[in-house]
Design brief:
By secondary structure, the chain is an all-alpha fold. It contains two helices and no strands.
Length: 131
Amino acid sequence: MTQTYIIGGACFVVGFIIAFLIQLLAIMRLKKELKSTKGYLESEKLMKENLKKENNAVYQLRQASEVDLIKKLQVAEALIKRLDEDILLLQKSNEETEQLLQVTQPELHTIKLKLIEAQNTIARYKAQLGK
């Protein structure tokens, strides 16, 4: 009977040690996986921060270029407005010169109109031949 108790106790102790080692290996494997997961999570956080920084840089660059383009557009609009005003002044000046020419030298004015008509006709013929 004592031998049975000793063998039973020894088996119990050996079983306990085996179970302890199995649990220890499982815990070590879980710690390794946890460490690996933490490393992966940290790398994902770093990637997210980098992407945020890049996104902010791109957004600021876009904003700067947008402001620059708006300024260029305003300058262009002002230039177009000035050009329109200059064209209107030139047209008015041409009309006044035409009227003055018609009043002071009607023959020259008639010849000028015929010349313009002839140039328009030549341009039409050239366009028809070009097609």
